[in-house]
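Lab meeting tomorrow. Look over both lines:
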Amino acid sequence: MAITGFSAPAPSDLSFEMPDADQRQLLDLDAQRSAVVVGAPGTGKTSLAVELVATRVERDGWSPDDIIVLTPNRRAANRLRDAISQRLSHIAAGVDSVHASVGPRARTPMSLAFAIAAQHAMVSNAAPARLLTGAEQDTILRDVLEGEIADHTGAWPEELHADIRTRGVFRTELRELIGRAHEHGLTPEDLRERGVARGIAAWEAAGTFWRTYRDIVAVARPDHFDASELLSLAAAALAEPDVLPQVKLVILDDAQEATAGVIGLLRGFASRGVPIILLGDPDIATTTFRGAIPEFLGRAATELGVTPDSVSTIVLRTVHRHGPAIRGLVSAFTTMGSALAAGQRSAASVAPAGAESVAPAGAESLDDSVAVSDGGEQSRARDAVLTVCRDTRTREVGAIARILREQHLLQGVAWNEMAVVVRNSALVATYARALAHVDVPSRTLLSETSLQAHAVTRDMMTVLKMALGRVVIDRESAADILVSPFGGLSALELRRLRLAFRHDRLAEGEHVTGGEVIPEALRNPALFDQFDFAPARRAARFAHTLALVKSQADQGSTIEELLWTVWSRSGLATQWREDALSSGFASDEANRNLDAVIALFTSARRFVERTPDAPADQFITEFDRSDVPEDTLARQADVNSVLVTTPSGVIGSQFDVVVVAGVQENVWPNLRPRGTLLFPQQLVRDIRGQQTDTVDARREVSDDELRMFAMATSRARHVLVISAHENDEDLPSNYFARAATRATNVPANDDGLDHRLSLRGLVGRLRAELSLAPTQSHDAASALARLAGEGVPGADPNSWLGMRAWSTTLPLVDFDSNDVHERVRLSPSKLESWEKDQLVWFIDSVVTGDKTTASGLGTLLHSAMEEVAPSGAVTGPVSSQDVMNVVTRRWSELATSFEAPWQSDVELGRARVLADAIAQYLTDFDASGARLLRSEGGFTIELDEDGENPVRVTVSGKIDRIEENPDGSILIADLKTGKSNVAVKDIPDHGQLTCYQLAIHVGPVDGVAAGSVAGGAKLIFVADPTAKRLYTERVQAAGTAEFFDAARERIRTAARGMAGYTFLGRLFESEERGEFASRYEYRIHLAKAVTA
């Protein structure tokens, strides 16, 4: 598979002009001195690191291998590496020697630790160390915890019961606790003793668990170390003189993100006399929840174990990145937090020379002593802070899209020079997809989501599991995988395939559905060969893929080889490559899918390299059991699109335009206390001798949120947008309100919409104007004609669906024919659906809806009611336990409806509530003196009519309960387990009850004697209690002669409409969609056809 688009980004954002006076201090510093360089965002710290490397190489004659440059994450390291290479390439003298470098010129601390460990292993003739990734560690922790639960072992306190220990959040805190303890030099025994001393039982238990876990890893994964262990191992290895002896300087950029493990590694270099240069800003640390120590910059000498007089402090006071409007807002938030280092807050900037500053009246002025930075020709004359607030998230995204498209089309800003930053990873996919839907190309970072979070990787692994027998191939699983990208069928094609199998089996006298045959065909591909049409051929190819994968696995193929078979036979490489190279939503989706597939292959390759003899099943187990994102080495396509990420995803980056989105109450800031199960942050404070009271812990969380917000806003060079939405349920946060005092608000148009600045949006808006006022829309019509002439999709009226000829005018049922089988078949419930919305009735009749959990639960409760109170039996009072005994016995029938165990527990709890109501109804019924004649009483009545307007209609159905009142009249009862009720005013005309009464009146009905009198009908709502009862009844009065005549005509009128070829549908606004517009089958028909 050939994939294009992987290229090194131009490091223009790191270009270095003339150093200012503050920056010159570092370049002129004695080469043997260490230094701490603090400066506000945009003061040129990263560029200064690049220039320092160039100075040491060019002026001092050093080799690039003499210098180690570190930065917190791989993306920042890649950018910094490119910038250093570009800068060194401009050095006139010694070009050849400059380019000869043994290792990367910039790397992450983990990469360096791994290299040190590898070199130490080679020198000492030991086995090379291997990294135990977070995902792998999570899997091992899960296994050990589940083993403890199964064996009833483990010393955990009562509040950390088994249910808590099965959750991902517990394992996350456990990883953090173990990691923080290890990087601060604690052993399992130390942690346990500290727990005893501090009276924290969770630490005591975790210490005991850590010892067990460590022993298991030592046996199962020898020479594997997690991140904190690898950093400690590398720091210890630096005591050996043969390890990296040539290093003369270590530079750490974004030092505010350094953890105790990274500090320990730096301390190892410092103990050799290697000078350390730290650059950072403690006010914008974003990874404190992962152990970052922002105050490191303020106490560097102590942390590095050197004398204070050997470390110089340099404060950068001029911001080069952005102008006073953006700088003012960033400063407003950094000054709200705790001061962690001196000097950097006094740094302030001004706009580039000649720039236009956008700042609202009343905004606080900057310090008059601010230095002015001349940005030169590269700076755009823009410096704006904008706020956007709409009434829904959808409209918030629409407003963001409008601004981004304005910047792209009118200001010439490339898509990849824009970023949207959201508070947490759960919002990343939401905003990325929403932007793509409104014509803004977007991308996300693979490292922010687990492989399981991507549908394409789940589908790919499902194919493997089916082939290896880990997933049962049944009706539902077969349908799901066949309509996935790897099956290649659409829902309509799957339906066609089902019908083909059904007709084939009916011809052979077998009464089975096509859906029951397809699983058999996937196990026996030859069954597809009898059909010569494309869906059958694609399904056959997929079935052969399953067989081939099974054969390869039996022969011992690796997981990488099995995945390649699935991928190569799917044919998706060519299709997605073409999509990725196109534009629009399809391009974004294809790029995301390809990135996810590459990440999966990278993970599989690493698994094979780590455990070459392990079976593929082991990889599948690890995939299923891990929900932790991997720091993947897989490179993503460098597509021109907007990055959507979290604050940690933009460390070391800057963009022309930054949108900080979703600034909602309880989202940003999120002041929920962290680490409330195992207290990893409290452990760090305790080790470092800091106060650990509740007030300080809450202030710490608040400071963390402020730092993340300040860091996100500081990434903007020219335009910064803060967005939120406000309605009855969601409110903007106080961060948004504070930002608004320094920003210009961007209002919506008079119609409340932010029209897309795109051809598709323009066409939609013009068509809407033409539709709303056709006699006053000459300008809209002229504009559409111009667009149509340019070939813009949707502008030509000949392409409008409403202008096309009828696909057919033949009726569904022809009453004029002599065929008596040409008749409408109507169920009582469908009469209600028809009268509410004809189009919904038609779609429901054509598209078979999936069985929902609610409908499955309703079926169980109906059966339970019938079983505990059978027809003709005298049951006496009924208990809810009697009903639940039936439900729990058959609960396994709903097992496939639940995606997680907790969902099953929730629905079972709901079932108990409904069982209480059913039991009370049956007890009340028994006490009333009435008796049950029949449950599920079936009936069929024909209401044909000849003449000028003939109709042939059959009404059939089953009645839940046919009850006989003490006076001998028949009362129909229909059980409703759903949450929705029917208004009292609608009961007299309720279609379903009307049909039931008519059936009793006309007869015959199973269990009802001929000539019986209909005494009315009722609905029993067991999910809608009243003040006195656990259920609600809605009763329809007994029918009269006029009632039954009207019912006959009502059914015939509906049948005539159902037999036709046109069906009316109600149009819904997006905020008005209710019961009959909620499912996807309806939306395409019921949403307004033309939108802007």
Remarks:
- Confidence is low (pLDDT under 50) at residues 1-12, 92-99, 350-381, 1069-1078.
